[in-house]
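Please, structure for the following, as tokens.
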Amino acid sequence: MQLRYAFRLEPTPFQQMMLARTFGCARVVFNDAFALRRAAYTAQEPWIGAGDLSKTVLTQGKKREGRTWLGEVSSVVLQQSLRDLESAYRAFFDSRSGKCKGPPVGVPTFKSRKDKRQAVRFTENARWKITETGRLVLPKIGELKVRWSRTLPTVPSTVTVIKDAAGRYFASFVIDADPDTDAQRWPVEHIAGREVGLDMGLTHFAVLDSGEKIASPRFLRRVEKKLKKLQREHARKTKGSKNKEKSRRALARQHAKVADARHHFHHELSSRLIREHQAVHVETLHVKGMVRGRLAKSIHDAGWSSFLNMLEYKAARYGRVFQRVGRMFPSSQRCSNPDCHRIDGPKPLSIRTWTCQGCGTVHDRDTNAADNTLQEGRRLYTLKVAEGHHGDLKRLRSDGKTRGTGPGTTR
């Protein structure tokens, strides 16, 4: 499993200038290559391959009068820009052919120099390194000061330098996680048999089947007045002026604080749930459809999708079970009593407690939903394991070389 570790950078004014030049060169190379392919497509000419594209845009492009400054930055960054274009086209073609699942991917477009978020990637070929004093050395940029908040578990393979809309610089390292180290960090033996069911909400961010309710931080709602004030000030500035750019950065910094606080909250809660439980069962949320209503801002503020994605990859990393329950499952309508499971029908959100007509149990709406999610998640995971084992048996028997799966059998 590959992971990203991001750390804040503190470049000097000269290094900021060199990074800006690198961002610009990578953008120009991407746009030149895209323009060539689009022109060939419009003229119904053959597809321009990656090799010919590199030769035309980079090798010959550096010799042209208007592109000589491409030689002032690392060539690896420019090659990676061409690879990004290849990846964009591959994703577009796979989406059109049906190979790529999910929402449709559009055709690549030109990159604008007005984009406030910019990034370039350095691979091992760029010969970047981390010094003994903790400095990040990048070709033609120099030694960058890094705010190390933790140590890297393994040697990174690539580093991406990012400048966000708030003007902050980050170094994002890609590492390969070590399964043995992860197993020692959070061993499964100490939590064997411990499972948890989650019910996501707005009043409470999450409710556990044990009855614990985790309050919703509402990071955006807390600073909404301040954001409105900054937005008004930004709107009143003269377009293209320095004060307009200052107000834009102030607004972007405030949004970045909200996003960072939400991200930190999601990481802390997801790590705690994965660390303390062997299996986590959650409901599948149709966030894209839910944000079409009047609660869109609150749903975006909660960030359910980001939180569930964190739970999923951390469960895979540390050997836990992560099971999603279908969104059509009536978790809020069914009695969670194993001897009852009566479905009393839909209930308005104003009803927070209700009494089951079958067994007379008084239920808290959210806790009951979390308990139902836990039970349904267990059932689905048991079926998944049984079907997987049955599939292995069928494959083994069709092989003709073995009749079992016990010790001593071969595939």
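The longest helix spans residues 242-276. Confidence is low (pLDDT under 50) at residues 391-411.
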